[in-house]
């Protein structure tokens, strides 16, 4: 029950964040795109990873076969790696804007390139166990 409440809170709460960014164009500055990226990652976690946990808890671990376990590991890994690196990029960009006064040099294109790199890196890094480099257990 608690996991279902967490899923609902995750999806609804981050959906509200995305809705606010959609309704308020003044919030769509390049540095705030990292917040949008975090909201999308949290929604993906709530819609993919958390239901797998609920299914596993309800079936007492009997529903997991090797493929589902691998899929669960990949989704968990991608979402967490992207979250961690998005937080790192946010902190680094805030440092550059505040301490080094690079505020005008941080364009939308730069932020999109950073986020694309984060997603590509996270996906490649987390797919390696599926292709035989280590494994998810």
TrEMBL record:
<feature type="transmembrane region" description="Helical">
    <location>
        <begin position="110"/>
        <end position="131"/>
    </location>
</feature>
<dbReference type="GO" id="GO:0008020">
    <property type="term" value="F:G protein-coupled photoreceptor activity"/>
</dbReference>
<dbReference type="GO" id="GO:0007186">
    <property type="term" value="P:G protein-coupled receptor signaling pathway"/>
</dbReference>
<dbReference type="InterPro" id="IPR000276">
    <property type="entry name" value="GPCR_Rhodpsn"/>
</dbReference>
<dbReference type="GO" id="GO:0071482">
    <property type="term" value="P:cellular response to light stimulus"/>
</dbReference>
<dbReference type="InterPro" id="IPR050125">
    <property type="entry name" value="GPCR_opsins"/>
</dbReference>
<protein>
    <recommendedName>
        <fullName>G-protein coupled receptors family 1 profile domain-containing protein</fullName>
    </recommendedName>
</protein>
<feature type="transmembrane region" description="Helical">
    <location>
        <begin position="34"/>
        <end position="52"/>
    </location>
</feature>
<keyword id="KW-0297">G-protein coupled receptor</keyword>
<keyword id="KW-0472">Membrane</keyword>
<keyword id="KW-0807">Transducer</keyword>
<feature type="domain" description="G-protein coupled receptors family 1 profile">
    <location>
        <begin position="13"/>
        <end position="137"/>
    </location>
</feature>
<dbReference type="InterPro" id="IPR017452">
    <property type="entry name" value="GPCR_Rhodpsn_7TM"/>
</dbReference>
<dbReference type="Pfam" id="PF00001">
    <property type="entry name" value="7tm_1"/>
</dbReference>
<keyword id="KW-1133">Transmembrane helix</keyword>
<feature type="transmembrane region" description="Helical">
    <location>
        <begin position="6"/>
        <end position="22"/>
    </location>
</feature>
<feature type="transmembrane region" description="Helical">
    <location>
        <begin position="64"/>
        <end position="89"/>
    </location>
</feature>
<dbReference type="GO" id="GO:0005886">
    <property type="term" value="C:plasma membrane"/>
</dbReference>
<keyword id="KW-0675">Receptor</keyword>
<dbReference type="GO" id="GO:0007602">
    <property type="term" value="P:phototransduction"/>
</dbReference>
<keyword id="KW-0812">Transmembrane</keyword>
């Amino acid at each position: 029950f608690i996991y279902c409440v967490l899923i609902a809170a995750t999806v609804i709460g981050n959906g509200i964040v995305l809705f606010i960014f959609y309704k308020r164009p003044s919030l769509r500055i390049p540095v705030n795109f990292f917040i949008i990226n975090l909201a999308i990652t949290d929604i993906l976690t709530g819609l993919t990873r958390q239901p797998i946990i609920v299914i596993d808890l309800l079936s007492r671990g009997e529903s997991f076969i090797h493929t589902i376990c691998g899929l669960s590991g990949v989704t968990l890994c991608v979402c967490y790696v992207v979250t961690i690196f998005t937080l790192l990029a946010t902190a680094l960009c805030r440092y550059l804007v505040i301490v080094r006064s690079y505020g005008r040099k941080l364009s939308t294109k730069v932020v999109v390139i950073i986020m694309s790199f984060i997603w590509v890196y996270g996906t490649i890094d987390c797919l390696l166990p599926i292709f035989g480099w280590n494994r998810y257990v």
